[in-house]
Specification:
The chain is mainly beta and 119 residues long. It has one domain. A five-stranded mixed β-barrel has the order 1-2-3-4-9. Strands 7-8 form a two-stranded antiparallel sheet. The two termini are 17 Å apart.
Amino acid sequence: MEAREASVILVKCSSGDRTFGIRIEKRGNDWVRTWAFKIDEAKAAREGFDKTRITGSFATDPKYPGCPYCGEKFGLLLCACGKIICWNQNRKSEKCHWCGMLIRGTAVTESFDVSAGHM
């Protein structure tokens, strides 16, 4: 079996100040979200999940379970601070739980330039 390039990006749930990781793997030209898991920020820092840059298009595997807190599968917003939050697409804006800025949501973000850590 061929090894796949995979990483983890850190996200905060928009329903509260809770951090989780999204495992992404390279498939062709896209990074595909394959699963998500709860993680505290101290452990994420120890694992180095904020050390590697990931740039590119993102897709979602049909088996991806979504945010482990609110269940959102597709909505992600990239804040000006460079961090990501999950996004309830029924709302016009969300508060970034990384920096406190209000982010206006207009479309599902499918391309990011974010920090991540290799698995």
